[in-house]
Amino acid sequence: MQVVYQRCCGLDIHKKLIVACLLRVGSQGVQKEMRTFGTTLGELYRLRDWLVANQCQMVAMESTGVYWKPIWNVLEEELALLLVNAQHMKTVPGRKTDQKDAEWIAELLQHGLLRASFVPPRPQRELREVTRYRSKLVEERARLVNRIQKVLEDSNVKLASVATDITGVSGRAILRALLAGQEDPKALAELARGRMRKKRDELAQAVQGTLSEHHRFMLKSQLRQLDFYDTQIGELDQEIARRLGVQTEPDEGDPDPDPSEGGPTRGQRARQPTTRRTGEPRTRSHPPPSHHRTRRAARPT
Fold it and tell me: Which residue from 59, 16, 57 is spatially nearest to 38, judged by alpha carbons?
């Protein structure tokens, strides 16, 4: 079988352990060297120096959970790397030990039989991590708003029947007044802003409820958490804008309008950062290779 790499290495990765198998093709055939390393930064540097000293042409590893990422980050600047879908490797029978795993990866790599998973450059990986974290916070915020609505329903406050977003400007003003002890329906309805003022009669009926001390405690805690989520999402928007080289639109007045008042809510804006570009439009100077699309199924999870 044709040998593609004269010097290559297969890594079997675990949480605390890395088993490396280095294959070298010489005049006396294929020589195999096995070594074991830890996963601390010092051990990763030792692994890198060993591979560089042996003039390793290519290093292959499985995409095992998140454990491959720190190894990739240390080795990518000095060595050519190949990330392999772990599920694909597991379908190959006959591997029973860590040493056998590393050796099998190295042998497949040596003959060019491994299919690479796409790993984007470091700036793109970091941006992806920030945007995914933001998406999680947006989802958690939406769940929190649903919990607030459940408490209001339990206390017979039908604010959601009138306001499209109970956490908009009008909704929050009414909730704060309720928590402060205001019980006059007309006074609460007068807190409406924008087009919500046309619904003051409906609001006066909707805010009449049986808000107990328990409900007040729950709502105060939930509104504090909601403010925290809004702050975190705003900071992530700024970070994403900085990485993309765009400038965020400055907020004017209260940053959380109600859709009934003619503007998007913070929850709606959280799904898409509000940004505008500075200078000339940015274009992709290097379009993604077509094989990235065909290998989407092999991307690491």
Answer: 16
Q: What is the pLDDT of residues 252-289, one digit of tens each?
A: 444 445 555 545 555 555 555 444 434 333 434 344 44
What is the three-class DSSP state of 246? Answer: strand
Q: How far apart are CA 93 and CA 99, in angstroms?
A: 15
Closest CA to 239 of 122, 134, 141, 136: 134
Q: Any residues with CB less than 8 A from the CB of 284 and at least 6 apart, and which?
A: none
Q: Helix 68-75 to helix 41-53 angle, to the nearest 10 degrees?
A: 50
Q: pLDDT exceeding 70 applies to what percent of the chain?
A: 79
Strands 275-277 and 7-13: unpaired
Distance CA 34, CA 171 (A): 65
| Rounded CA separation 26/21 (Å) | 16
Separation of alpha carbons 31 and 75, rounded Å: 23
Tens of pLDDT along 172-205?
999 999 999 988 999 999 999 988 899 999 999 9
